[in-house]
Amino acid sequence: MKIRDFLMEDWLISNRRKVKYNLGESGVADYYLHELLRMCNLDAGDLLKIRLEDELTYGSDFLRGEIARTYRNIDPGSVLVTTGTSEGIFILFNLLLKRGDEVVTGLPGFQSLYEVPRALGCRVKYIRLCGENEYLFDADDLKRLITGKTKLIIINNPHNPSGALLPEDTIKNIISIAKENNINIIFDEHYRFLPIDDGLRIRSACEIDDYAICTGSIVKCFGLMGLRVGWLVTNKPLLERCRSFKDYTTHTLSPLSDFLAAHALKARDTILSKNLRFIRKNHVLLTDFVARHSDTLSFIAPKAGVVSFIKYNHAMPSDEFAGRLIKKEGVFVLPGSSFEVGSHFRLGYGIKSEDFKPALDRLSRFLTEIK
Questions:
Q1: Number of C-alpha atoms within 13 angstroms, CB side, residue 224?
Q2: Which superfamily, per CATH, for 9-32+270-366?
Q3: Angle at the Cα of 37 (from 35 to 42), degrees rounded to 5?
Q4: pLDDT band with cut points at 50, 70 and 90 for residue 1
Q5: pLDDT tens-digit series, residues 305-345
Q6: Which phi and psi (to 5°) does residue 295 adopt?
Q7: Percentage of the chain surpassing pLDDT 70?
Q8: Global pTM exceeds 0.85
Q9: Residue 371 confidence (pLDDT) above 90
Q10: Peptide bond preceding 108: is omega within 30 degrees of 0, i.e. cis?
Q11: Which of 42, 108, 160, 161 qualifies as a cystine partner to 309, CB 3.0-4.6 A?
Q12: In sequence order, what DSSP letters do the residues of 283-334 get, joined into one string?
């Protein structure tokens, strides 16, 4: 299996700990362990009681139960814990695809969602996602791309890098198309816990129709990137195949990560309400910022998550734009080239509000200087 370099990683590795203002990340600002323990009503002594043994390959019953409780009508036995969503998706691709199969997904998108199938010898067909269609996966476009060789549809919802959120009617229609054509469909739902509209609960595709295979995680929404805890939800026969394949990858999760992730999910109302307060404040700041620079910038305001995909009208490659911004202002945004799109950058607004506003001020100054 030969696979290309991950386009965004060089940028992230080179800049995440070196710039003054990091807007290149795609998650909520990470918590310290003592903060997490406080929100979960735990103390350091609770960690001393953890036995450093092999956990169940499925994940502990405690963690699987807490994951299942974030859904409606999902049994813990339908949940497999993975090391982030990336492992779950990698396992699914290897089990559901073979060389010569066709896959349909959206572009721009998270690179692993199309790069791994391509490396497995599949033909990947793209539905072009852009501001003109609000970055939404279109059912009619999907129908046109399906052939007898199409074996998998991959949808990232809420969408990275734009923050777009598919309407439930569209999800139902797309799943119906998949079922009619006997095609598997995976929904990567990394940002399901972070709706921008107050009072909105984002329903998982597997709650809408159990035909859907879904992946999820706490790392980006909860500010717990270092725990590396994700999962997949699927029918039990496929889940057993995934569990067996996982014995060749990470096999088990660290009992420390399992314990902390389970308690974080148990305390999810506390953690997520805290995160959403400053994310929604930042969303207002970001929307106002783009409006003030409407002669230069445009975007579709995100509906969920903590990333936005902003288009600029300067005749400058996105790598140069991002590099000059880092050098002049100490602000890091991810260039559109990381998503194989020009004249765009991904801006994350998951950092603390007291840092976000001065970062936008510096970006504003940069935009004025390069006119």
A1: 31
A2: Aspartate Aminotransferase, domain 1 (3.90.1150.10)
A3: 150
A4: confident
A5: 999 999 999 999 999 999 999 999 999 999 999 999 999 99
A6: -75, -15
A7: 100
A8: yes
A9: no
A10: yes
A11: 161
A12: HHHHHHHHHHTTTTEE-PPPSBSSEEEEEE-SSS-HHHHHHHHHHHH-EE-E
Amino acid in the structure at residue 355: D
**Is a pLDDT exceeding 90 seen at residue 105?**
yes
Q: What is the CATH number of domain 46-268?
A: 3.40.640.10
Find out whether 222 and 272 touch, Cβ atoms under 8 Å. yes
Picking from 308, 313, 339, 78, the residue whose alpha carbon sits closest to that of residue 214 is 78
Spatial distance between the Cα atoms of 286 and 348, rounded to a whole number of angstroms: 10
Amino acid found at 221: C
As given in the structure block, the two tokens for residue 49 are 């009681």
Residue labelled with tokens 């963690």: 63
Which sequence spans correspond to the domains of the chain? 9-32+270-366, 46-268
Q: Which residue has the tokens 């010569």?
A: 100
Quickly state the pLDDT bin for 117 (edges 50, 70, 90): very high
Residue 271 near residue 264 (C-beta atoms within 8 A) = yes
Reading the block at residue 15, the tokens are: 């800049």
Q: Extract the tokens encoding 201.
A: 């609960």
Report phi then psi at 335, rounded to 5: -65, 150
- Report the length, in residues, of the chain: 371
Beta strands in the chain (DSSP E): 21-22, 79-83, 102-107, 123-128, 150-156, 184-188, 213-217, 229-233, 297-298, 307-312, 331-332, 334-335, 344-348
pLDDT recorded at residue 2 = 86
Please tell me the distance from the alpha carbon of residue 179 to that of residue 277, in angstroms, as a whole number.
39
Question: pLDDT, tens digit, for every residue of 163-185?
Answer: 999 999 999 999 999 999 999 99
